[in-house]
Every structure is written in structure tokens, then in C-alpha cells.
């Protein structure tokens, strides 16, 4: 549980920092994104990833106080962990595309 909590906290912190950096970028691609409805999608994806990672942290803290041998805890832990990892990968891929974009 301790390792899970640490991992979740690191990912949450990374995503929150990335959100602040990406949303304040003044690059041409970010200007174009802000002019469309895709900025709402980007903010939503970042928010989902942050909240899922934070939920993984909370669940890991709960694991210190409840029996982790119960099936419900294991299933919820796996589900939140996979959802958090998926959201992190999605946001990371989008951010890398934004950063790699070369204006024509």
C-alpha cells in the first residue's frame, strides 16, 4: 500500500504540474486549441487523470485501515489503478503531441 500511495502521489503531482505548464503555454498550437472546443476536452482529460490518481492515493490510504484481503478492496484497487494508468497515458500522449508539434 505504501508503494501504491507513493506512485499515486507522484503521478498526481506530475499531472497537476503538467496541467499548469500546458495550459499556460503560448505556443501556436495551444492558441489554436483554445479557439476550439478541444480545450474543454483537454481540460477534462487532465482533470480526469488528476482525480483518478488522487483517488488511487486515497484508496491506498484506506488500505492501511481495512482488510486488504477482501475481494472488494482488491477489485476496486485494480480498477482504480488501471483507470488511473490509462488516463495518465492518454494525457501524456496528448501533451507530448502538443510539445512535439512543429508549426508549418
From TrEMBL:
TM regions (residue ranges): 6-25, 45-66, 72-91
Source species taxonomy: Bacteria, Pseudomonadati, Pseudomonadota, Gammaproteobacteria, Oceanospirillales
Keyword Transmembrane: yes
Membrane is among the record's keywords: yes
This protein's UniProt keywords: Membrane, Transmembrane, Transmembrane helix
Name used for this protein in its record: DUF3325 domain-containing protein
